[in-house]
Amino acid sequence: MRQYFGRKLFIYGLTFVAAVTVNWVIPRFMPGDPVASMLARARVSQPEAVEAMRVYYTNLFGFDEPIWQQYLNFWGALFRGDFGISIYVFPVPVTDLIMGAVPYTLGLMIPAVLLSYWVGNRFGAFAARRKLLDNTVLPVGYVLTATPYMWLAVLLAWGFGVVAGWFPIAGGYSFSLTPSWSWTFFVDLLHHWALPFLSLFLVALGGWAIGMRNMIIYELESDYSNYLAALGAPAKLIRRYAYRNAILPQITGLALQLGVLVAGALVTEIVFSYPGIGSLILKAIQNQDFFLLQGSFMFIVIGVLVANFIIDIVYVLIDPRTRTGMAGAQA
Amino acid sequence: MSLRVSELRVHYKTLRGDVKALDGVSFTMDDGEILGLAGESGCGKTTLGKSLIRMDGRMRHVGGTVELDGRELPIGDDRAMNDYRFHEISLIPQYSMSAMNPTRRIGRMVTELLRSRGVTLDRKELESRIGMVGLPREVLDRYPIELSGGQKQRMVMVISTLLDPALLIADEITSALDVSTQKAVAKALLGFRDGGYVKSMIFITHDLALTSHIADTVMVMYAGKLAEKAPSEKLIKAPKHPYTKLLINSLPEIGVRYEERKLAGIPGSPPSLLNPPQGCRFRDRCPLAGDECAEEPPVNEIEPNHFVACWKA
Q1: How many CB pairs under 8 A join A and B?
Q2: So which residues are the signal peptide here (chain A) (predicted)?
Q3: In chain B, what are the domains?
Q4: Buried-most residue among A248, A315, B36, B94 (CB within 10 A)?
C-alpha cells in the first residue's frame, strides 16, 4: 500500500515539476514586453521618467536578473505561496485575484462534473438494453458529446438569454448588486450561474451516458452475469453488479476528462463573461500579465493533480483487483 | 423417472436461417442417474444443456417437451422458467473461472444471490459444503481473483448445488483443468450425488474416457440428434453406432505405441445444421453407409436401456 502510494506520489511530483517549468517558460516566450505595455498605459511622455519607470518595474518584477535566477526565484516564491504581483491590475497580488475568481470557477465546475457524471452514468445504465430509450439516448448522447463547449454555450446564451430572455447572458451577478450574504444576491447568483452550468453539464452528460451504456451492455454479456441469470437471479441484482463493475472504467475516464472539463469551463466562462479563472486567464493573456497567467495555470495544474490523486484513492477503495496489484502481483 | 425429454427441437435464429442445433432429441433419466453427454463440437450438447436451464437470446424452442418429476418445464418462457432455476435445475457453467463477480467477496455474493431468490443463507451448511470440496472456509472472505482456477471451479460447484437441485447440468467443467484437478472435480461431483445434494446430473463433455468414469449412462450426440445411449460400460465396451465406434477408436490407449499403429480419427466434419442433409446425418462420414441410410434411422432400443439410431446396428 505504502509502496503504491509512494510511487503514485513520485509520479505526481514529477508531473508537478514539469508543469511548473512549462508554466514558467511559456509566458516568457510570448512576443511583446509587459513592462513596455505598462509604460504605454501610464502615458508618460518624458523619456527620463519613462526610463526611470522601466528600471523600477523591471527591478520590481525581477526581469533584470539572469533567466536561471528568475526560474529559481519562481520556485522559491512558489513555496512561500507568493505568485507575484499582477501587471494588469497593478499592484494587486496575483493570489488575491485568483482567490476572488476561484469560487466562481469551482462553483461552476464541481456541480457540473459531479452531476453530469452521476446523472450520465445512471441514465446510461438505465437506458442500456431498453430498446426505446436506447434508441434515443444513443444519438442524443453522441450529438451532445461531440458539441464543443463554447458552441453550446453560445447557443444557450442566444436561445435562453437573447431570444427567450429568461436568463442573463453575462457576468457572475447583476452589475447593480454588490456581493453580500443576502437572499437576493444568492438568487441573482444562481440565475447567472444556470446557463454556463447547463452548457458544461449537457456536453459532459452525453459522454458519460454513452460510455456507461456501452460498458453496461458489455458487463451484461459477461460470464458472471450469465451465471447469475442461469441461477435465476433477478435482473435488478445482475444490473447492480454490472453497474458497479462498469463504473470502474468510468472513474478512469473521469480522471482523463478532468483536464478537458477544465479547459471547457475556461472557454464557457469567457463566453458568459463569468468572473472565474477562465476570464482571468483571457485578461492575463491580453495584457501579457506573466504572473497572473502563471498563477492561474498553477491553480489549474494543482487542481487537476489533486483531483486525479483523489480518483486514484477511490479506485483502490472500490476495485479489489488494484489492491492485489499493490501487493506486487501482475493484475 | 426424474427427467423426460421428448422430441426436443431448439433452433438458433441467424440471418441466414434457422440453425437446427437440436432436432428432435428424446431421452429419459432416472433419479440419481448421472448422464454423460458426449460428442464433437457443434453436435448440440451445450445447446441441450442450455435449453434445460436458460436459453440465450438467439435460441428458440421450436417443439418438444421437457418434464422434470412429472411437471412440464416452460423452457421457452424465460420468466416462467425462473422459478425452476437454482431451486430445481442448476448449472455449473463452462466458464467457472469467470463466473463470479470480480468485485464482490464470495461470501457476500452468495448471500446476495440467495436473498434475491428468497432464501436465507445457512452459513453453517455453506461452510460444511465448502469443506466437502476441500476448500478452507476463509474463501468466503476473499475475492474471486484470490482463488486459483481449480478453487474457483469448486466454489462455483458449491454455489450451484447449494439449494439441492433435482437436476444439475455440468457443462464442460473439466475442459480447462489438468488431469489431477479433473479427478478431484469428478470425485466432488460423485460426492454431491451420493450425498443426496443433487438428484440427477447431466455431465456434458467431449472427453469420452472421463465420462465413462463418472457417468452411469452415456449419450452420444451427432449433428443435433441422438446417436447412441447406453450404460457407460456397455457403450465403451460394445458400441453399436459406427460414430461411437469411431469416437472410441480415436482415443489413445495406454501402452500402445502409436508409431506402429496410427491413431484413427474420423475423416470429414459434421454437416451444416443450417440445412441438414436428408436421412442419416452421419452418412457422408460413415464407413458402413448404404442405400437405406438415405432415410432417417429411428432410435431403437436394441437391448434394455441401449438406444441406437442406426440402420446397421
Answers
A1: 73
A2: none
A3: 3-252+297-308 (3.40.50.300)
A4: B36
